[in-house]
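User: Teach me something about this protein's shape.
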Amino acid sequence: MKRISVFLWSLAVLTVLILSGCSAETGRDAPMPEGNKAGGNSAAQLGKPSGLAGAPVLADGEEGANEEKGDDKNAPSRANGEKDAENGRFKGNGEDGNANSAAMANEEEGDGKEDPAMADGKEGVAGNAPPAPDGKKEAAHEVGPGAEENDWVEYNGPIEHIFFHPLIVYPELAFDGDRMSQGYYDWFVTVKEFKVILEALYKNNYILIDLNALFEVKEGEDGQTALEKKVLRLPEGKKPLVLSIDDMNYYEYMRANGNVHKLILDKDGRIATWSVNLQGDEVISRDNEIVPILDDFVETHPDFSFRGAKGLIALTGYEGVLGYRTNELHSPGYEEEKREALAVIRRLKETGWTFASHGYGHLDARKADYKKFVEDTEQWKEEVLPLTGPTSIYIYPYGSSVLPGDPKYEYLLDAGFRVLCSVGPAPYQKWLPDSMMMDRRHIDGIALTSQRSRLLPLFDSDTVIDPVRPALSAP
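Assistant: First, the predicted structure itself:
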């Protein structure tokens, strides 16, 4: 009852903040749980259903959370005093970060038999798929027929960066009228909506790029670390697009509200999903989540990907990664969870996917005190980095950023993060000698239902909205 009350109160405040256009400069964020106590049980305080894990909403006339503006030619969103809000998202549930130690106990990955519940006709076997051999990479896709590097042109325009949360697969659970339904309406998109968006992005000549291809971290002779901006060359007429996915951890609340349960390798060693449908059947699919859908789209539209790039997966750690409870370090099943997670991560990397830190406990960087923020980041480096490998990219939870000169910003640089991504209404990059700040657009129910004009350079949201969305009170 207490958690429900906290959620309802937070949601009410969130709605007021969205409508009032609270500015990042005021620091008046939506009330959110503070997250995990570093050194103790992980982020269950964050896990109360009073906020969705993710980035803030930006109402019309808002400005991105990176407040540096007006001095970058790739920052058109900053021109007219637009302001951003740092409104929260749902987190997972539970009072203890280790409360889900038995979560996977009844979700064994199968016994090797083909799954009869496959909705898309693409069969797979959970858990028994052979991982791709080490070093075996998918062939890099050509960018269109006969694409040659000497035909590419230097690109100096804005770079779009859009992000999603895991897709709504079972709308009957997401929109069932419970206390989470409005949040799912606001912060997620359905499988159908994502597919329509992909088609529109392709039609509008966007091409996926790897964010890591924009920069190089260099150590100077003086021992100082510098971030060098690299020249981006693309096929003429193409516009660069970075696509990222936040919170692909498949928290417990996600499993109960219409998302899949985890990413797996199917019997052919391809990335697929595993979930349980409303009838209680296990479902293995390559047609109901961003990763396999985009993998297949690029296979049929190779000129949508530059040098095989797919997307950037931003992970927390407090409920493991990719649906595997790798946070339960002392669980009897830990080694198996870790082994399976590593196999999936290896295949993701081989097929054009990269990783970023989203903090361990999804802390609000601006609100968290310095000690807690450092401990949280160190916990991510201890538990998640060994799985994903090193990354220079930090994606702020809630889009709540800190600025150069702030001790937390300087700590992130010292911790190895040089590209710091927040949320804004349009493309924005700010290059500094040692780092780069970048804004991302949120693509979710709020954006689709209230920000059509802003999204038109990407797609027309009127053609995207899924009729399955109920008649809830949209913002």
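Now, about its shape. The first helix runs from residue 2 to 20. The domain at 118-463 is CATH 3.20.20.370 (TIM Barrel). If you'd like, I can walk through any region in more detail.
User: That's plenty for now, thanks!
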